TrEMBL record:
One of its GO terms (biological process) is cellular response to iron ion. It comes from Spongiibacter nanhainus. Residues 37-286 form the Fe/B12 periplasmic-binding domain. It holds the Pfam family Peripla_BP_2. Residues 1-17 form the signal peptide. This is Cobalamin-binding protein. Keywords: Signal.
Length: 289
């Protein structure tokens, strides 16, 4: 049901305003005219806004909004987990795009109480990423570019689905943090990208979206592949730590693979780039059997 709602939610609604969409909290968000002054409240949302063709309308973003390159010069209004409300109000935005599960709820509520318009984003499926881009495009008046970007993304995902539909399964440990050691469950987009490539998340059944785990749990599960990001786009140090566990199948077969974190950990069109690289890594693991 969630996926169907997400696919339909970008449709413009007639409600006496120039444009209305339904956000990921199933709230109707209306603007009297396309947004001209947008603030993005997560690095992923900054990237989504550029992907929708509306990057030129961004007046500020949060820390670590580093893609595309143009985003690096945007004024900062704090981090995604604590932002400067006075600075936000002073910039007179006509649209805030918030991260439903990542931004402080009390700060978002205070900004709404001041009359600011907030669109809440929380993609859980590949289709949600596409529909988010379409909806941002609708709110910003950049529908043509947004729809083209969304179409390319969905087409690429469908291509991978077809290519790996019958691929032999590969048991995978996805490491998203080092200290504490963290992974993802099956509801996370990273796990869905893993499954797209024929991978099997060894911690799929855990209840939390991004749970902490014990080292012993990884050793006991003995994954065939370990995939990790790092503290930066080129930092592979997390994988080096695993080499001391030479009893692990992933270590014994040299199946320790790096994927730049922003291509898998942000719900943006670049998830397709990360998924393609991940699929290549799992193909390598199959060849090493």
């Amino acid at each position: 049901m969630r996926g169907l709602l997400s696919l339909l939610a970008y449709w413009a609604l007639s409600a006496g305003a120039t444009v209305c969409v339904v956000d990921d909290r199933q709230r109707e968000v209306c603007l009297e005219q396309p947004a001209q002054r947008i603030i993005a409240l997560s690095p992923g949302i900054t990237e989504q806004t550029y992907a929708a063709g509306a990057g030129g309308k961004l007046v500020a973003a949060v820390s670590f909004s580093d893609y595309p390159e143009a985003a690096q010069s945007l004024p900062r209004i704090g981090g995604y987990d604590r932002f400067d409300q006075e600075a936000i109000v002073a910039m007179r935005p006509d649209l805030l795009i918030g991260w439903s599960e990542g931004n402080p709820a009390e700060q978002l509520a205070q900004l709404e109480s001041l009359g600011l318009t907030i669109y809440y984003s929380e993609p859980f499926e590949f289709a949600d990423i596409a529909s988010t881009i379409r909806r941002i495009g609708s709110l910003a008046g950049t529908d043509t570019q947004a729809n083209a970007t969304a179409d390319r993304f969905i087409s690429g995902i469908e291509e991978l689905q077809q290519r790996y539909a019958s691929a032999p399964p590969v048991r995978v440990f996805q490491q998203i943090w080092k200290n504490p050691l963290m992974t993802v469950n099956d509801e996370h987009l990273i796990s869905k990208a893993t499954r797209l490539c024929g991978g099997v998340n060894i911690f799929a059944d855990l209840s939390q979206l991004s749970p902490r785990i014990d080292l012993e749990a990884v050793l006991a599960a003995d994954p065939e592949v370990i995939v990790a990001g790092g503290m930066g786009e080129e930092n592979r140090d997390w994988l080096e730590d695993w080499k001391r566990f030479d009893g692990l199948t992933a270590v014994r077969r040299d199946n320790l693979f790096f994927v730049p974190p922003s291509t898998l950990q942000r719900p943006t069109p670049r998830l397709l780039e990360g998924a393609r690289l991940l699929c290549q890594h799992l193909d390598t693991a199959r060849d090493r059997r």
